[in-house]
């Protein structure tokens, strides 16, 4: 009989970015396969609300410093009542107490997910969390996996790179139609061409670098830059001021947050992600926005930071540049826009790679394999099975 699991996800995060989308999309996929999902998150956050509206069982846990003790006791009660087979934590604050509560109450399989590539220090407390309280660690990038293996002396079967899989859209808008759609939204000529950025609009994403690169080639290309995503008012104002000082403000456009980003990828002649390291340390996993663009047959250019190099294989699935070098980026934009044959070869390679390795189905199957791997270990040690039929 097919193994079914009850899976609990926890997160202390309160936004709606790649991490939260990963939890929700993975949970939806697992439920379609017959598994039960329970989500523990701060009340009225986007994930909490979407999970509740979808029909998942949800619990309100704040994961704030002042409530850690009461949250810990609440978690123990939830685990005793729910009797989950698997716990997967997704943030620093929730991992610290949820993993401990799960071990205390005998949750058979405990997984810590690390979604960013920021370094983790080898303190006694971190060693306890990353080495002793969990059975497996999931990362979203090979860079992060290698770092954690080195710091905590983890074995290959204790940590796995598990980048977020995308949900394939049922249909993709034709490119010409998508360009006209975006041009109409921005009140531009229907024949306007675009390069684009999509994602969280912040300094660490290097959006300013893209503006500087556009200035260097503005006389050589007719393209406008569309920035799709939301950011803080202060940073958006800073970018608009930079565009004005570079004398390109009439070719830089901000669309704000978009729930459905697929038409924008189709409208772009290339998508750029210029993420840069923080204090010399990468923070990116494998960015979902890049994976989605590649699936959309949109040429991609990315910086050599963190997990970006896991998905962009230089000159095979996209182009890579030094995030500190706007001039190098400008050359790669020109290369992408003017060398059509080479660009289309990369586009084809990128889409095939994503379809094979980076869809929600591929990710889900890989995760299920880890669950089953752990069950084999439990069976060999004569520990009660975690894959009994859901209660």
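^ structure tokens above, recovered residues below v
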């Amino acid at each position: 009989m097919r193994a079914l699991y009850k899976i609990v996800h926890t997160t202390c995060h309160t936004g709606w970015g790649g991490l939260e989308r990963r939890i929700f999309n993975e949970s939806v996929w697992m439920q379609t396969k017959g598994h039960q999902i329970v989500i523990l998150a701060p009340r009225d956050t986007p994930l909490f609300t979407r999970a509740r509206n979808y029909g998942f069982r949800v619990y309100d846990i704040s994961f704030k410093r002042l409530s850690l003790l009461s949250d810990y006791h609440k978690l123990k009660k939830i685990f005793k009542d729910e009797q989950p087979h698997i716990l997967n934590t997704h943030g620093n604050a929730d991992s610290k107490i949820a993993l401990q509560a799960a071990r205390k109450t005998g949750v058979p399989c405990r997984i810590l997910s690390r979604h960013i590539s920021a370094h983790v220090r080898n303190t006694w407390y971190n060693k306890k969390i990353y080495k002793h309280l969990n059975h497996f660690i999931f990362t979203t990038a090979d860079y992060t996996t290698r770092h954690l293996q080195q710091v905590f002396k983890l074995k290959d079967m204790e940590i796995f790179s598990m980048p977020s899989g995308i949900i394939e859209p049922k249909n993709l808008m034709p490119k010409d139609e998508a360009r006209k759609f975006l041009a109409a939204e921005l009140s531009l000529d229907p024949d306007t061409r675009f390069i684009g950025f999509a994602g969280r609009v912040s300094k660490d994403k290097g959006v300013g670098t893209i503006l500087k690169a556009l200035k260097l080639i503005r006389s050589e290309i007719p393209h406008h830059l569309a920035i799709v995503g939301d950011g803080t008012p202060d940073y958006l104002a800073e970018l608009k001021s930079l565009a004005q000082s570079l004398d390109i403000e009439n070719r830089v456009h901000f669309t704000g947050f978009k729930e459905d980003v697929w038409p924008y990828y189709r409208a772009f002649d290339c998508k750029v992600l210029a993420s840069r390291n923080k204090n010399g340390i990468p923070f990116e996993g494998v960015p979902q926005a890049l994976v989605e663009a590649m699936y959309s047959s949109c040429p991609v250019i990315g910086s050599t930071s963190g997990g970006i190099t896991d998905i962009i294989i230089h000159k095979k699935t996209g182009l890579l540049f030094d995030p500190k070098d706007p001039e190098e980026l400008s050359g790669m934009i020109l290369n992408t826009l003017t060398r059509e044959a080479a660009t289309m070869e990369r586009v084809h390679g990128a889409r095939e790679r994503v379809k094979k390795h980076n869809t929600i189905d591929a990710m889900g199957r890989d995760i299920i394999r880890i669950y089953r791997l752990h069950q084999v270990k439990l069976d060999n040690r004569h520990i009660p099975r975690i894959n009994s039929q859901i209660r």
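The domain at 6-165+359-380 is CATH 3.40.50.2000 (Rossmann fold).
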